[in-house]
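Ligand-bound model needed. iron/sulfur cluster.
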Amino acid sequence: MATILATMCDGVEATSESNPPTTVRWQEAMKRAFRSGRELLRYLNLPDSLASERAERDFPVFVPLEFAARMRPADPADVLLRQVLAVPLETAAEVASSATCDPVGDLRAVRGPGLLQKYRGRALMITSGACGVHCRYCFRRHFPYAEVPKGPQGWQSSLEILLRDDSIDEIILSGGDPLTIADDQLQWLIHALNQIPHLARIRVHTRMPVVIPQRVCGQLLEWIRSSRAAVYFVLHINHAQEIDQAVQTAVKSLSSAGVTVLNQAVLLREINDSFEAQLELCRRLINMQVIPYYLHQLDRVSGGSHFEVQEQRGLQIVDALRSHLPGYAVPQYVREIAGETSKTPLVL
Ligand SMILES: *Cc1c(COP(=O)(O)O)cnc(C)c1O
Ligand code: SF4
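Prediction:
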């Protein structure tokens, strides 16, 4: 514990590449995460005044040291810091009037407690309200997670719905982040899902292997290997700077265990809204055998409007990617429109 505290208090020292944060178990990493903008800014040698406590009351700051260590110290424009720091803009009066608390119609797609279905053949289980990091642009920041059923007992009704509906052959574990749940519970869930004969694929939507790479532990790899249903992971990496050696190692373990790993990113103003940033991200992803799956146009969630990029700009970026990368490395640029039968592709 002493080393952990030393690393945390060391500020700039701990952020240098040559001195990565001491590896602790992922559960400890969750516990030691920064829980206020002020703490995070001090660690980065930045002034407290950049943070907004008012915005934090709306959606608390949560940033693991592992992720903060990839930020550039003393740089208020750092592309990782921007994703996670609560700033005064979030609560500014000029937020877009079309921004809502449920921009993608989640509340209309509820099939049962904690189970959403919007698209044919695949249903989505909200398995946890917790995440390994709080992204300020998150479209689920206002989702009523407190009402989400948890644990084997809570999941029972979803399992029954899935068992009765053989039109669903893929289950997406989402949240929140499903990998914030303990492995023995996940193992139970994977086993239960594998008992449903028509379920062919289990997809895990997670940012944990990115923000706390040691989450990809032996026990996790064990339940993955035990699955009859094919296992897909969809990671969430927005910028190449998020990828360090530990992330690469975690991804390699997943691939070796037989997981097909995809990535989704969100197009974010002054974070990854340039051709160069997207090109480097896609290259880094395919070099570690991760397929760039979706690039999302931002959902209009209240408090997140300052991240929005003009669709025209996104279209130009993706078009330019197409002439520089293999076809499999170009993500589909999509927007989610409530009530549609799939994500809606955006094309020039
Ligand atoms: C985005 C989403 C999916 C997954 O869609 P794919 O196009 O299959 O990746 C499934 N269910 C819900 C509710 C979603 O929001
Ligand atoms: S990890 Fe995903 S669900 Fe959690 S806050 Fe970030 S974008 Fe939202």
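The beta strands are 110-112, 115-119, 122-126, 170-174, 201-205, 230-236, 260-266, 291-296, 332-335, 344-345.
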